[in-house]
Specification:
Blueprint lengths: L12 H10 L3 E5 L3 H14 L3 E6 H7 L1 H17 L6 E8 L2 H9 L4 E4 L6 H16 L6 E6 L4 E3 L2 E3 L7 H11 L3 E4 L16 E2 L5 E2 L5 H10 L5 E3 L7 H9 L12 H8 L3 E6 L1 H17 L6 H24 L6
Parallel strand pairs: 1-2, 1-12, 2-3, 3-4, 4-5, 5-8, 8-11, 11-12
Antiparallel strand pairs: 6-7, 9-10
The chain binds 1,3-dihydroxyacetonephosphate.
Length: 332
């Protein structure tokens, strides 16, 4: 058993307080491998942004939990080495059981999400409360994110064909009864690169899909009921058209890709939304650059030369998000 403080990590409590009062959102970037982690830490150290490193249960299986834990420890040391001691959270994304959350808490995570959104309301309350009681009773308080409302889309082990929006009239009771530190809500975002069906969108003159706007009315109704309480937005990749086009130019097929426009995320980050989850954009940037290198230099077979440009692009992407979308730059 190890506590996150021994790894140099922090929980989300103080970070969320500052983000809510400062009108910005913390980046929550998913990672599974070395290059992604390097890019996240380089971008966040350079832009002086706190960061939440997100690990899904799929990532844990893929990369090995011991390796991931030690990578997070290494990330703290690496940020120091880069001259910026940014606060780093290690967070379980979409924990689906008490046992998984407990295991993560006992192996160095400073924050966990328990996603009971697919259960009935009462089952969700009971499961979330059980995780909160365990996490908060630790000597080093581990923060817990719960979820109300269902996001559509596919993400690692989590998938749902249909979404339903968070019902504002439930949030007060949920937060009070469970004791969660933050709440993920559903206002129209979804996981993956195809966030809306083409028939839900309009098209610009170039044929690019324009998605329907997020339901800011629901967000505002939620904020009224739990003023200042930290809200989390999942499924918040913008799915940049440049990356989709680059993937397709070099042989990929990513039809009907559509994400959340950046100006809507900026608006959300100014509100009580204090954590914005981004995974798909990183996957797209990596895939685009890997395809480009492989297509342009067919005799290249050194993985560092293939993955290096992808890592550089990822770093640029994350720095851009911190500075221009989330507003988390220069908050350390
Ligand atoms: P995206 O698929 O939009 O990147 O969402 C990721 C996410 O919400 C992780 O929990």
């Amino acid at each position: 058993m190890i506590s996150y403080t021994e790894l140099g990590l922090v929980n989300t409590v103080e970070l969320f307080k500052k983000a809510v009062s400062g009108g910005y959102a913390l980046p929550a970037y998913n990672f599974n491998n070395l290059e992604q982690l390097q890019a996240i830490i380089q971008a966040c150290a350079e832009t002086k942004s706190p960061v939440i490193l997100q690990v899904s249960s799929g990532a844990r299986k893929y990369a090995n939990q011991n390796l991931l834990k030690n990578m997070a420890k290494g990330a703290v040391e690496y940020a120091n080495e880069l001259g910026c001691n940014v606060p780093i959270v290690l967070h379980l994304d979409h924990g689906d059981s008490f046992e998984l959350c407990k295991d993560c808490i006992e192996t160095g995570f400073s924050s966990v999400m328990i996603d009971g959104s697919h259960y009935s309301y009462e089952e969700n309350v009971a499961l979330t409360k059980k995780v909160v009681e365990f996490a908060h009773s630790r000597k080093d308080y581990v923060s817990v994110e719960g979820e109300l409302g269902v996001l559509a889309g596919v993400e690692d082990d989590v998938s749902s064909e249909h979404s339903h929006y968070t019902q504002p009239e439930e949030v007060e009771d949920f937060v009070k009864r469970t004791g969660v530190d933050s709440l993920a809500i559903s206002i129209g975002t979804s996981h993956g690169r195809t966030k809306f069906k083409p028939e839900q969108c309009t098209r610009d003159p170039n044929g690019v899909l324009i998605p329907p706007p997020l339901r800011f009315d629901i967000l505002e109704a939620i904020e009224k009921r739990i003023p200042g309480f930290p809200i989390v937005l999942h499924g918040a990749s913008s799915v940049p058209v440049e990356y989709v086009q680059m993937v397709e130019k070099y042989g990929g097929k990513l039809s009907d890709s559509v994400g959340i426009p950046e100006e809507q995320l900026r608006r959300a980050a100014n509100s009580a939304v204090c954590k914005i989850n981004i995974d798909s954009d990183g996957r797209l940037a990596m895939t685009a650059l890997i395809r480009k290198v492989l297509a342009e230099i067919p005799d290249e077979f050194d993985p560092r030369k293939i993955l290096g440009p992808a890592r550089e692009e990822l770093k640029k992407l994350y720095a851009h998000k911190n500075i221009n979308v989330l507003g988390s730059a220069n908050r350390v």
